[in-house]
Design a protein that fits this description.
Length: 385
């Protein structure tokens, strides 16, 4: 009798333990494994470039909510597990490892900054997990491997756009450069601008540098002022650009500043004030675009977040939608099938333009040039690849 009872207890314990083990395999949202498709997101939600991460996440979140409301993917909902890298490369790498090894994500969305994407990409590549950057424009990002993609144009194109705009539209024959030598984004964009600007007949009269944590740029700007450039190319991030603009105007420099998509933040106006007025930048989209696709996106975004989406939000939305479209076409979240589907993306109708992924896993798409005026960005022109 005792032996039978003992065996029954053992069997019961074994059954309970077996059920508990299966039930413990859950996503961060507490749903049983397999009930959702889990996608990782890495962004700078705090730190010096926090507006980049926040805007991008809101774009991704909007795309995900719309998808799930429409029935999800492959009969499942999509769940985003996000990590804040605080604007640090080492945190971006740590987050990528956790998403892959702990959360078993099907793919990763991120990062915006090229330097942080380059910290993440080798980890995603070695684990064969597809990674899609919304906005990293340095060419080296996707060169890391065949599982690394982006939905934005790259710096050689963006730099060429601004070089031609300076020479042809602004009729500037002499330009100075002020670059952040610690940022892959800034260095790559400055090099691309220089190459094209010289080809079309322009002269680079000075090429000055600074580093990310600098707050005093007067020595570099004083050197530039003495050479009387007709424009100054500043391919940095909004945190430094705002300060550079203020200090340039304080020194009596009236030449327009030119830049890239790293300027795109409401903080640019808070930091730079009226000093940034009359400057120009290249970007991925303009809210002034009257197409139905763009205006409907803006309407939905404003309803969700109470503001007009910037270029980072639009890129985040497109990155998520391109990934979702690839999962749908692949018919599964199998890594190789998803990688192949992403590589086969052609003419996807994104908010930031029609997106085609080329043989280097970069997006071929137009750029827009915007003017800084009246505390905002106004559309000037579009330039196709």
């Amino acid at each position: 009798m005792k032996t039978s009872r003992f065996l029954a207890v053992l069997l019961t314990i074994g059954f309970v333990l077996g059920c508990t083990k299966k039930g413990d395999q859950t996503t961060e949202g507490g749903k049983p494994a397999g009930s959702s498709i889990v996608i990782g997101e890495v962004g700078s939600f705090t730190g010096d470039t926090a507006t980049f991460g926040i805007s991008t996440h809101q774009g991704i979140e909007l795309a995900t909510n719309e998808l799930n409301k429409a029935g999800g993917l492959l009969g499942k909902i999509v769940e985003i597990v996000k990590y804040d890298n605080q604007g640090k490369e080492e945190e971006a790498a740590t987050a990528t490892n956790r998403l892959i090894n702990q959360h078993k994500v099907a793919a990763i969305l991120g990062e915006v900054a090229s330097r942080r994407s380059k910290a993440m990409a080798p980890i995603a590549q070695s684990n064969k997990v597809p990674m899609v950057s919304p906005s990293s424009t340095n060419p080296e990002v996707t060169a890391i491997g065949d599982y690394i993609f982006r939905v934005c144009f790259i710096d050689p194109f963006q730099g060429a756009v601004m070089a031609r705009f300076a020479f042809e539209n602004l009729k500037a024959k002499k330009v100075a450069i002020l670059r952040d030598v610690g940022q892959d984004y800034s260095v790559g964009l400055a090099d691309a601008f220089t190459e094209t600007y010289k080809k079309v007949g322009g002269e680079i009269v000075s090429d000055q540098s600074y580093t990310e944590k600098d707050v005093d740029f007067k020595a570099q700007l004083t050197a530039i002022r003495g050479l009387n450039p007709e424009a100054i190319f500043v391919p940095g991030y909004y945190t430094q650009v705002g300060l550079i603009a203020r200090q340039a105007r304080e020194l009596g420099i009236k030449a327009p500043l030119l830049g890239g998509d790293g300027w795109d933040s409401p903080k640019l106006f808070e930091i730079g004030g009226k000093a940034v007025e009359g400057s120009y930048l290249s970007n991925h989209y303009s809210p002034d675009d009257k197409s139905e696709l763009v205006q409907n996106f803006i309407k939905r975004y404003k309803e969700a977040y109470g503001q007009i989406p910037d270029g980072l939000a639009a890129q985040g939305y497109d990155a998520a939608m391109v990934l979702f479209d690839a999962i749908k076409r692949a018919g599964s979240t199998d890594a190789k099938a998803l990688r192949d589907a992403l590589a086969a993306t052609k003419e996807y109708p994104g908010v930031t333009g029609k997106i085609t992924i080329d043989d280097k896993r970069n997006a071929s798409k137009p750029a827009v040039v915007l003017k800084v005026e009246n505390g905002g960005f106004s559309y000037v022109t579009s330039i196709s690849p």
